[in-house]
Amino acid sequence: MDDKIREELLKYIGELKSLYSERSMLVMPTLRFAQEKFGRVDDNLIEEISRFLDIPAIKILSTARFYHFFTEEDSAKYRIEICTSISCSLLGSEHLYDYINRKFVDEEIKNNFSVTRVGCLGSCGTAPAMLVNGVLFENLNFERVDRVIEGLKSGKDIDKILG
Ligand code: FES
User: Fold this and answer.
1) DSSP string, 50-79
2) Which of 82, 124, 140 to mutate to test the pocket of ligand 1 (most atoms within 8 A of CB)?
3) pTM for the structure as a whole
């Protein structure tokens, strides 16, 4: 494993340790950090996380493989997960899903973005909703989706795109 990755992981875990009283509570935030930062949670990363947290690798692995948003392979730079459960669906999320896919006909853009349908994100009251790299966007419509994608393309911070 790349020393820089190991260093960043160790630094992150070091910062987290002061916030949580139990090591097991560090697993999810560390996995999320690895996914966001390195674009994947592969076996090497799981081994390192296991070593740094002193938690058996099998426990880290079972958590990582339970959640769809942790991927073994490098994922796209921007991972869009659009909710197509009932509330979002009734408010047009399937149309938004198709709309986003149509925007990604350009190869270069396609390589940077992935779009998947996911189940309820717990934001039914502000449906339709989607996540981009784990950041929640609500009350979506075509215009808001355009603003999000343009913001991503121009390199804005994800959590500042819609203000
Ligand atoms: S149905 Fe989409 S957030 Fe709940």
Assistant:
1) HHHHT--HHHHHHHHHHSTTS-SSPPPSEE
2) 124
3) 0.65
